[in-house]
Amino acid sequence: MPKKKVLKSAERNNLSLKKMEKEFRKLPSQLSAQCRAEIKLVKQQEKKLKTDLKKVSALQKAAKTKLSVLISAKTKKTPSIKKQTIAAKKALADLIKSNKVLNTELVQLKKSRAMLVTKQVKFGTLSKQLSKLEKELEKQPTKAVKTTKTRKQTKKRKASRGNDFAAPVSLQEPTTEVMVNEMEETELS
User: Fold this and answer.
1) Cα–Cα dist 91/111, whole Å
2) Is a pLDDT exceeding 90 seen at residue 146?
3) What is the average pLDDT across 22-50?
């Protein structure tokens, strides 16, 4: 009965490892797709900012011409004309500020888009290199490495330590590998 439990847990571990490996293989392509979607959103934001910049620059030109007309008017400077020139100057200053803000936002979006493009390229090359590495590893033969220690190795190690108070061999706890080996021997006989 315990042998079946050991095998079932080993199978579960093997399945979880395969699942993790599969997710690891998919990860670079998923990240690349995510970058592609973010790039698309940034491009849309850039397009919107560019149209806003065009509108603001057109309004700015109109405000400049209106201000120049008001300043160069050959008529008397009445209080209403003075108020209009003050309002035109204020509107022009506001348009200049908004133009600067939009320009800085556009520059930041271009930088972030460039960063996203480089990330996308990195993830794409990582995905390609990972597939190449997998193909190379499939070609090479693999060697099974035994990682568990046998009862004899533990006895030798304890004896080499010089432990005078070591428990007799019959009282030591057997390792899981020894238990499995003993169970196989009893089933065979």
Assistant:
1) 30
2) no
3) 92
Integer-rounded Cα Rg, in Å, for the chain is 38
Torsion of CA 68, 69, 72, 76, to 10 degrees: -140
pLDDT category at 25 given cuts 50, 70, 90 is confident
What angle separates helix 176-188 from helix 2-71, to the nearest 10 degrees?
A: 140
Question: Cβ contacts of residue 116 below 8 Å, gap of 6+?
Answer: 35, 38, 39, 42
Q: What's the token pair of residue 174?
A: 């057997």
pTM: 0.59
Give dist(CA 88, CA 63) in Å, integer. Answer: 6
pLDDT of residue 139: 86
b or e along 51-81 (b: 16 or more beta carbons within 10 Å of the residue's beta carbon)?
eebeebeebbeebeebbeebeeeeeeeeeee
Ramachandran area for residue 145 (φ above 0: left; ψ -120 to 50: alpha; else beta): beta
Which amino acid would we find at residue 15? L
